[in-house]
Amino acid sequence: MFDEIFNSSGDARAHYVPYLDWLNSHPSGYLNGKMAEADLLFRRIGITFAVYGEEQGTERLIPSDPVPRIIDTKEWAFLEKGLEQRVQALNMFLDDVYHEGRILKENVIPAEKIYNNAQFQACMVNHDLPHKVYSHICGVDLIRHSDGNYYVLEDNLRVPSGVSYMLQNRRMSQRLFPELFKNYNVAPVDHYPLLLQTTLKECAFSENPTIAVLTPGPYNSAYYEHAFLAKEMGCELVEGRDLFVRDNRVWMRTIYGPKQVDILYRRVDDAFLDPLALNPNSQLGVPGLIEVYRSGGVAIANALGTGVADDKSIYPYVPQMIKFYLDQEPILQNVPTRILSNPEDLAYTLDNLDKLVVKEVHGAGGYGMLVGPASTKAEREEFAKILKTKPDGYISQPTLSLSTCGIWLDEDLKPRHIDLRPFVLSGSKTRITPGGLTRVALTEGSLVVNSSQGGGTKDTWILNDINQAKEVF
């Protein structure tokens, strides 16, 4: 198992030595006191995440561990190149399948996996977008295996969340431990809202566009983030009922009268955007929105129909996309994946359920999955019945040993499994904020890091200059 702080001999990795020296220079209880201070501040700010189905309430704080996850410059440079390559190929794939469909005609990807996919939106066929960008904001989930290499666990191209927690973790770290940032040359992340605003404006069809963040409302699990990003960008936070269509444009109701909206940064799923064109029972969308969108009267980010590229049944084909569109070898590798609609893959999975992770292709947030090594015999038997009935709805992967990073518990560092979600912005060019959101499984031995499943977060530090990190505190 790979640990981010200590090597296999138990010695601290070079870029963590100054931090551990700083940590050991403080008396017992120091970090616990800072954690209590952070908890109070987070409560005052109202940084919450709704957890559906919990009896004790609909909202809770996401635990934030004070020990940062630190990545050195060389390692991050490698990840940046891989992320840019991957997201570029995914956007090219989306433009292709909604236009010529070359990758389907050449049988690189079976056409039925696209046209029978619930995320495919026929209304996007032959709809041209600025810079041919569909996923303007992409969150790529990375894990590090015991071999020390990074692997892509999944691509989030629809409405990826978590960036607000990345930003607030950094602000809290800087507030509580300012001396650390004087000695570590940590790449900044606070410019993300400006980068997001710039990227969104580049997808508009007009000059000086007006941006609005479209939210499902305060009961959505990520509502805090929707409000936070709207405030940071200086734009309006709106619900579907605040908007209406007139004269082939989208307008929002204000106390000063209607104001035209040129860009919707939507945090609403495809099906609920327009009850006239999509789900007729939706109370969250804007009647007539898709017609305006198709005619170029409004831009939507991320674009409608991006989900066809981050479906878990399409994920295994991303390396082929990179080779097909860019004529390059993938820099970042996929986790080996079996597609259970293939009889051989299904048979293997059924025979090895106790060793594999099985995921629903449309699942998210840690739901609809079986973690074989952590499951009971009864759970595996029940899952086997489901897989035999609907094999095309699932994939399976080996149980990778996600790397660990210490959390502060009982006056000591306790290793817990982590992943990393960097955020990639695509407009006229690709912009990647250094780092991302490190999610951590707070339960010992658990591999589920999702906030909806009880996970926590860490500040992620990308070092601009590793030599500067070697100074003595």
TrEMBL record:
Domain Circularly permuted ATP-grasp type: 68-441
InterPro entries: ATP-dep_Glu-Cys_Ligase-2, CP_ATPgrasp_2, UCP005522
Lineage: superkingdom: Bacteria
Protein name: Circularly permuted ATP-grasp type 2 domain-containing protein
Organism annotation: Aquella oligotrophica
